[in-house]
Amino acid sequence: MAAPAVEGAAVTALRSVLRRVRLAAERSGRTVNDVRAVAVGKTKPISLIQQVYDAGHRYFGENYVQEIIEKAPQLPSDIEWHFIGHLQSNKVKSLLTAVPNLAFVEGVDNEKIATVLDRVVSNIGRPSLKVFVQVNTSGEASKSGVDPIECVDLVKYVKSRCQNLVFSGLMTIGMPNYTSTPENFKTLVNCRAEVCNAIGIAESQCELSMGMSGDFEQAIEMGSTNVRIGSTIFGAREYTNKK
């Protein structure tokens, strides 16, 4: 009897999150349609993700290749999947082959992974893949992401050398205790201004993926167009289940 209660709680939590997203967007002079809320189901069962899908949500993300390639084929094909975080080059083919409805890779952090993604997209004949360049805005050695001063160069590489990738924006992960969140987000906003100036596009054409369960409202108020919400929707993660 416990499982239905958990699943019901996830749907209730989703509605609460979407309301908070709407209010934060309005505070920043935008509408809820200007912000994408990605429900991140890391370590959570397919049945729970299906419940959130059945409530009308379509944007979902995962952090581990093994999880997304197991879950995605068992869930509806109209889900827009996001792979979030560092991606190893030797797992690119299995990811793209198993998840044809993968919409974004949020975590291109070096030229090698960009090159491999570009080649595999071409080889398997799937449509162009949208990517966010990941920027390490906190300076933590444990975090993936390009240094902010190297961000423009990596974006230029993706734009000029990776014809099967669509550069769609920048992504960052703030510090886990949120102490430097405003500085991290401001750094990403500054990176966007530099990138857009360098490649000659409007800032509206460069998304900002920043903000998670603990700071997504602040991220939206600072300009985020893509927030990644896990535990606030699905509950605490169960790392003992991770393969």
Describe this structure in words.
Strands 7-6-5-4-3-2-1-8 form an 8-stranded parallel β-sheet. Helices cover 42% and strands 17% of the residues. α6 (151-161) packs across α7 (181-199). β3 (80-84), α4 (92-98) and β4 (102-108) form a beta-alpha-beta unit. By secondary structure, the protein is of the alpha/beta class. The model has no long low-confidence stretch (mean pLDDT 93). The protein has 9 helices and 8 strands. It is globular, with a radius of gyration of 17 Å.
List strands and helices in order, with pairings.
Blueprint: H1 2-27, E1 36-40, H2 46-54, E2 59-62, H3 65-71, E3 80-84, H4 92-98, E4 102-108, H5 111-124, E5 129-134, H6 151-161, E6 165-171, H7 181-199, E7 207-209, H8 216-221, E8 226-229, H9 231-234
Parallel strand pairs: 1-2, 1-8, 2-3, 3-4, 4-5, 5-6, 6-7
Helix pairs in contact: 1-2, 4-5, 6-7
Supply the key terms:
243 residues, 9 helices, 42% helix, 17% strand
Number of helices: 9
Estimate the helix proportion, in percent.
Answer: 40-55%
Distance between the termini: 26 Å
Order of helices and strands: HEHEHEHEHEHEHEHEH
Rg over alpha carbons: 17 Å
| Overall pLDDT | 93
Biggest β-sheet: strands ordered side by side in the sheet: 7-6-5-4-3-2-1-8
Unreliable spans are none
Structure class: alpha/beta
The major pleated sheet works out as:
8 strands, parallel
Number of strands: 8
Shape estimate: globular
Beta-strand portion reads 15-25%
